Amino acid sequence: MLESGGEELPVRSLVLLDDPGRHAELVRRGTYISPVAGKITLRAFSESWLASRTFGPTTAEATELRLRLRLHIWPVLGGKLLSQVTPSVIQSWVRGLKGSASSKKIMLTLLSPILGAAVDDGLVARNQTHAKSVKAPEPGKRKIEPWPAEQVAAGRAALPGRFQIVCDLGSGLGMRQGEILGLATTDVEWLRKGGAVVHIRRQVRIVGRRMVFAPPKGGKERDISLPESVALALAAHLEEYPARPVTLPWLEPGGQPVTVALVLTSAIGKAVNRNSFNTFQWKPALGKAGTPASRDNGTHALRHHFASVLLHGGVDVRALAEYPGHSDPGFTLRAYT
């Protein structure tokens, strides 16, 4: 059965139209959903949902949510009407997402409250992410084998001098690659009372083949104590390779330009492209150091070394999760113990 506009009505709505008694009963109970209620697109509704959140529209959390919506949810589901976002559509979308099982699960977790709000607003009858047929992929269970100190030192020595700071910040502070590439001199408080601190405020990421500044992963800024060994390495790096001002758009190509003095830049004073670094600097260095160029031996291995050092030093799992920015202490426990 079609509406006058030619669009097919949801099955539940067809039953209601053909059964006036049932329609009246659902209206009395407050559970009636209008046949036209689901005519708003997921993108339009999620825009209003995002605007209604308690955090400000320019906060790190808001910009990270918008980025995830724009990159992972809107391209496939954004143009669909809310009534068209069925369990089978959701499961197909999850299956087609790129990335790890845990990242797919995060995207499904983001979609769920949006559809939940649509239910609360009376636009759809149920949150289809809760359907039995919608299943989030389970992350593979494997233990991480952190690099020993000797392997970190060998990798560092094999890198060109300009890029050795990547090993210092990754293994000494647990910073992600994008966070290292986005670190500015103003993010370092050398003389802070109680000890020097590094503020993790941004990362460099690639959107549509363009580099942009963006909030740290998950939109969560954090502070990391700066140990003397890393402070000395950082000071030596800045003396040899002075910070250079770099301007990149915020969050997406065409976004508001942001200029900061980056700790690590290319030889011509530009932001370092992670793909170029991985291909022309990191992988050759692994080969020189005798380390296989595998997925487990990316720059993330430096974070694993950092976490393992803290764990063996007696730091409890919950505190350990906060240092590298893990959102789930359980992940830290499963990965390193």
Descriptive key words:
337 residues, DNA polymerase, domain 1, disordered C terminus, disordered N terminus, 47% helix, elongated, 14 helices, mainly alpha, hpI Integrase, Chain A
| Strand order within the widest beta sheet | 1-2-5
DSSP strand content: 5-15%
Order of helices and strands: HHHHHHHHHEEEEEHEEHHHH
Helix content: 40-55%
Task: Tell me the distance between the termini.
Answer: 58 Å
Q: CATH superfamily of the largest domain, please?
A: Intergrase catalytic core
The strand count comes to: 7
Rg from Cα: 24 Å
Please state the second-level CATH architecture of the largest domain.
Orthogonal Bundle
- Describe the biggest sheet? 3 strands, antiparallel
CATH topology of the largest domain: hpI Integrase, Chain A
Classify the secondary structure makeup into a structural class.
mainly alpha
Structural features, described:
There is one protein chain. With 337 residues, the chain is mainly alpha-helical. The chain folds into two domains: 36-130, DNA polymerase, domain 1; 149-336, Intergrase catalytic core (hpI Integrase, Chain A), CATH 1.10.443.10. It has 14 helices and seven strands. Helix 7 crosses helix 11 (274-289). The longest helix has 20 residues, at 101-120. The model is unreliable at 1-17 and 333-337 (pLDDT under 50).
Q: What is the element layout, followed by pairings?
A:
Layout: H1 11-18, H2 20-29, H3 42-51, H4 60-78, H5 87-96, H6 101-120, H7 149-158, H8 164-173, H9 177-181, E1 188-189, E2 197-200, E3 203-207, E4 210-214, E5 222-225, H10 228-240, E6 244-249, E7 257-262, H11 274-289, H12 300-312, H13 317-322, H14 329-336
Antiparallel strand pairs: 1-2, 2-5, 3-4, 6-7
Helix pairs in contact: 3-4, 7-8, 7-11, 8-10, 8-12
